[in-house]
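Hi R.,

As promised on Friday, here is the backbone we talked about, encoded as structure tokens. Could you run it through your design pipeline when you get a chance and send me back a sequence?
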């Protein structure tokens, strides 16, 4: 193995000159290929000879004959130049039509219910050889799971990202009320009196019944009655169909379950803060062709799904 002193004396131009001389075995032709004058190439060859303490090439007639040392080191130098060329070569444009593999996305169940179906349908149309993997994700574990390679990106209400992550805005998630009109027997929009006097069902993975709704009500000197808490949004429709109760949930999932289960949607009678839904991905994937394509596809699908469902939210211009 060469020591550091030798490595410092040899630059890429010298290695390239050696490679071309090995191929051409003629100084004039090699200089022409390298866009150098013969004196410049001769100077480079002299530096190589002095550094490696070998003639490397000897003149035979009008051509050059490599020495045993040159023949011995040529394959390694060719491999090194090939590695460098591959590393700096412009990336091949990603072609979804011929790509074979999987895309992975992390979402909580409310966003998954609203967007996963349209996403996989669109993906299959554009990339027949692709497979979509949905990974259950919570915003608390999103960054760790991203670093572990669990998915290409996460969609959630993310915390401040690490320096090696990118948090891109998607939309501000509003909340609406959803209920079974056959059970609650109220017409939309619900009044504040309707809202406060009704029973409520909340959704919490951790089992917490209090939400930002209760915080807003408390500031107004009001309270609501939470009669049940479920861990997943999929449990809401059966609960609401079984009793006169209201669930105040993100509009995207509310529109989805209302359409599927014949439920009513109402604007909340109190002003609730919107949550910023963002996309979290690794900074190293920022310019990767495959990753860029998949992120753009997701944004397009979300925009179309929000519009088709009648949601009031719109995609951020920065998405």
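Update: got your reply. Pasting your designed sequence below so it's all in one thread:
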């Amino acid at each position: 193995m060469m020591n550091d002193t030798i490595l410092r004396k040899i630059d890429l131009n010298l290695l390239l000159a050696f490679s071309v001389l090995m191929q051409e075995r003629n100084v004039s032709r090699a200089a022409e290929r390298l866009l150098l004058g013969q004196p410049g190439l001769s100077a480079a060859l002299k530096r190589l000879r002095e550094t490696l303490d070998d003639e490397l090439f000897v003149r035979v007639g009008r051509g050059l004959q490599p020495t045993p040392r040159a023949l011995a080191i040529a394959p390694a130098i060719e491999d090194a130049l090939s590695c460098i060329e591959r590393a700096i070569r412009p990336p091949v444009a990603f072609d979804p039509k011929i790509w074979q593999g999987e895309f992975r996305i992390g979402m909580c169940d409310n966003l998954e219910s609203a967007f996963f179906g349209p996403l996989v349908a669109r993906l299959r149309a554009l990339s027949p050889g692709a497979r979509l993997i949905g990974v259950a994700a919570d915003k608390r574990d999103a960054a760790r799971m991203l670093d572990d390679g669990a998915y290409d990106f996460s969609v959630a209400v993310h915390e401040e990202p690490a320096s090696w992550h990118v948090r891109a805005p998607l939309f501000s998630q509003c909340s609406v009320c959803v209920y079974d009109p056959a059970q609650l027997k109220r017409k939309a929009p619900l009044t504040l009196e309707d809202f406060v006097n009704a029973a409520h069902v909340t959704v919490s993975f951790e089992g917490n019944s209090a939400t930002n709704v209760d915080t807003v009500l408390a500031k107004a000197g009001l309270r609501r009655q939470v009669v049940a808490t479920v861990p997943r949004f999929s449990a809401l429709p059966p609960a609401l169909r079984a009793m006169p109760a209201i669930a105040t949930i993100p509009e995207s999932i509310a529109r989805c379950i209302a359409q599927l289960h014949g439920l009513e949607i109402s604007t909340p009678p109190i002003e609730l803060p919107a949550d910023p839904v963002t996309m979290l991905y690794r900074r190293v994937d920022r310019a990767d062709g495959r990753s860029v394509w998949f992120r753009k596809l997701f944004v397009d699908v979300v925009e179309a799904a929000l519009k088709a469902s009648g949601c009031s939210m719109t995609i951020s211009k920065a998405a």
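One thing I noticed while checking it: The chain has three domains: 7-88, 101-173+275-309, 175-266.

Thanks again,
M.
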